[in-house]
Prior knowledge:
The chain is α+β, with helices and mostly antiparallel strands and about 350 residues long. The protein is built from seven helices and 19 strands. The protein has helices at about 1-20, 25-40, 50-60, 65-85, 95-110, 230-250, 290-295; strands at about 110-115, 125-130, 135-140, 145-150, 155-165, 170-175, 190-195, 205-210, 215-220, 255, 260-265, 265, 275, 285-290, 300-305, 310-320, 325-330, 335-340, 345. A six-stranded antiparallel β-sheet has the order 1-2-3-4-10-11. Strands 12, 13, 16, 17, 18 and 19 form a six-stranded antiparallel β-sheet that branches. Helix 1 runs antiparallel to helix 4 and helix 2 packs parallel to helix 4. The longest helix is centred in the N-terminal third of the chain and has 22 residues, at about 65-85. The model is unreliable at about 1-65 and about 75-110 (pLDDT under 50).
Amino acid sequence: xxxxxxxxxxxxxxxxxMFTGCSSSSGKTEQKxxxxxxxxLTAADEPVAEGNKEETTEQIPEEETKAEETQAAExxxxxxxxxxxxxxxxxxxxxxxxxxxxxxxxxDTASSKPYEYPEDICExxxxxxNSDGSLTLTVDNGELSVDFPPEWKNHFVVTHxxxxxxxxxxxxxxxxxxxxxxxxxxxHVTILSLFKNDRFYVNAGVHPIGYSNGGYWHLYxxxxxxxxxxxxxxxxEENIVYEKLRDFVLKSFRSRRDSGEMTREFPIPxxxxxxxxxxxxxxxxxxxxxxxxxxxxxxxxxxxxVEDGWHVTATDAVYDCxxxxxxxxxxxxxxxxxxxxxxxLAFPDNIG
Length: 352
């Protein structure tokens, strides 16, 4: 079918060129005719009705100039050839420009919609449902976002506290299971909490996941959740969390940069100074990776092998599935080492 279509298009092109060569119209007029023919060719599912063609021919005034009559005749011939082409083009193989534009517009408009359960979301946070069914939660009026899988819809509530898990005051958002552990009870398992701090730090339970508006966002995600296995709804919640939610969440955090762009990588304004610290794991290869390979979730691409004790300057960070990578440069000569795992670095001065 494709070869046949190309043959018809070639025939139209040749005949159109022959008509153009015989025409006394200017080059500007020829260009306009070609453009009109092109538009007709793309409208494969809208052939011109025969009645319209006859009416157009009959309405040409007798006092029109010979050149205008010739131009109309050429247009009529081109139109007829075009109709022959469109009748032989499968509707499944050809898509009109108008349809492409319409699909694109509808896709943009329908890319997200308001969440159906706004009563479950506290003030300062918001949730939208994306076209693929996934959910995006934003907190602190859009400063940080995280994605949830479709299965988590109507399974969670978001609450707010002025006290962070580290005991300091600040914005703290809890994402908890909507199903209570006991029928009629009010205890909901906390899945994760997002809180802001003025200090960059990493430990076994807390990871930095973003930076915005002068502070670092951290993630606290429990690994010892208590689920009531005598409650079928609780069992369902547990399965969703461990089979669907966690891996989805841990690769989706984005924070708003000063430019307004939401990205997974975020700055360390302090430009912290430290060194490579291999310690007891000296038998393993250590290196800096490319940011692209970290964000893609595939095999990590080695950028630079590093050695114990090398001085580094940290400029940015990115969180990916329980690991924090630091964008490092050689403090002494400026070589770009790439993104090194935080656990292979030491920053004794201002981050840790």
